[in-house]
Amino acid sequence: MGNFGATIARNLAQHDFEVMGIDISQKKVDNLKGDITKVVAGDASDKNVLKSLEVGHFDVGIVTMRDEVLANILCTIQLKELGVSEVIARASSDVHGKILEELGADKIVFPERGIGQMISQFFVSGSTDILEYVNFTAESSLMTSDHSLIEIPVPDFMVGKNLKELKLRTRYGVTVIAVRNDEIQYDPDANTKFNDGDTLLVFGKNENLNKLTE
């Protein structure tokens, strides 16, 4: 299921929906236990597995695999054949989306594309707030409510250093999504050096972001 699928499952469960998750990874299954109604280790692209779990009784099926395109397609087909009323499928490209549509998926979603559009719009808006939070909520982006995307002026301790030296992911558990100075640099690499006057777009858990900005 990955982070995307697990987040959807948890958010739906928190809103009192009956949710069953299926993943071939026992580790991912264990991580979801207790958070949703039921979680099972199994191959979601295998019709026999889905049939044994009586998925046809569910109103909606959400297919969230990203890299396993064949499994994604097979799962979509099986859910429709087993009687799931509405199937929402994740696509990784326009071609993939077109195939899913032809196979009967009721709705196609492109989560990475949606997040990319949101981030670019955030910069285009020309926000001047010193610290502005853009919460990733279940309604807006399907991210968990305890994570945020924030715009901050570069902290003093980061000036003159690069990402490799700072090790922000290791020390703070946050990720720099983009840097704005005279221009916008998305997905900065390890050698990106920060200068006084830079504005950063940073993603992470709220508690970790607070530590970064203290």
TrEMBL record:
RCK C-terminal domain span: 137-214
GO molecular function: monoatomic cation transmembrane transporter activity
Domain of life: Bacteria
Coiled-coil zones: none
A Pfam family annotated for this UniProt entry: TrkA_N
PANTHER family documented for this protein: KTR SYSTEM POTASSIUM UPTAKE PROTEIN C (PTHR43833:SF7), POTASSIUM CHANNEL PROTEIN 2-RELATED-RELATED (PTHR43833)
Name of the protein in question: Trk system potassium uptake protein TrkA
Organism: Halanaerobium saccharolyticum
